[in-house]
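Deliverable D5.2: sample structural annotation.
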Amino acid sequence: MLGDHPIDVVLLATDLGESKEFYAGKLGLEILTESENEITYKCGGDSRLSVTKSTTGTADEQTQAGWRVDDLAAELAELRSRGVEIQEYDMPEMGLKTVDGVADLGFALMAWIVDPHGNALAILQLRS
């Protein structure tokens, strides 16, 4: 069954060099494979993130992918030290407001970053 297997995330970018600087340079992801049309990065377990070259990029603003972490505050501190901007949201119509970049969703704490091509990426710490 598909639920027993890893899944890979594929994001779009109009400039792979700019994406490489963000994902490898700022986020510190290890490059597994690289071509003129795609870069694939290693993530936790057997998961991978691929960024493929696109003429249009992404048109959506909603979250495209997310990482589950054990310590959100530590991850955000590391990202900020690398120059990554943590997003702030105040969307009362959706019941979403961040404080210092973090939204309390009840079941979890969540923060977002946006790559150079508009892909919104979540970082989530589940509550036990």
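Annotation notes: The first helix runs from residue 16 to 26. The chain has a mean pLDDT of 92.
The annotation will be released with the project's public dataset once the embargo ends.
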